[in-house]
Write a structure and sequence with these properties.
By secondary structure, the protein is mainly alpha-helical. 74% of the residues lie in helices and 0% in strands. Helix 1 runs parallel beside helix 3 and helix 4 packs across helix 5. It is globular.
């Protein structure tokens, strides 16, 4: 795994669930390996998604299959969606689907919402900068 802020963010997320460190680290690394084995391009920007999914107490293969199916459906319906965005949205939808209405992961769900909002704000800032740059060129 690459060191840096994305890994630090993932570590903070992994702490939130209150699962013992060896268990949650094994789930996280198992999911990374399973995603990569399934052909997903998992880089540092996807560490937070994998960290959230680490709290789903199901086999990695089930989680990856659910994410990949949702990702494929999103890419079919939304042609403009990038591969990374489809993976991110697929992971978010899979988390909701797999966890369901369970109240056990409420704090984690709140953290996930905050991360999603941060991603949206960053994307909007990037788009604004690009638009201003294009207008001045």
């Amino acid at each position: 795994m690459s060191r840096g802020d994305p890994l630090q963010t993932a570590a903070h997320i992994l702490y939130l669930g209150g699962v013992e460190a060896p268990v949650i680290v094994e789930r996280f690394s198992g999911l990374l390996a399973a995603f990569r084995a399934a052909g997903a391009k998992i880089g540092t920007s996807e560490y937070d998604e994998v960290a959230i999914l680490s709290f789903v107490a199901q086999p990695a293969a089930n989680i990856v299959t659910t994410v990949r199916e949702l990702e494929a459906g999103l890419r079919t319906r939304l042609k403009w969606l990038s591969e990374r965005d489809a993976l991110s949205l697929g992971a978010s939808l899979a988390f909701v689907r797999l966890v369901g209405a369970s109240g056990e992961l409420g704090t984690l769900a709140d953290a996930k919402l905050l991360l999603d909002m941060q991603t949206i704000v960053t994307a909007r800032q990037t788009a604004s900068i690009a638009a201003m740059s294009a207008a001045t060129t």
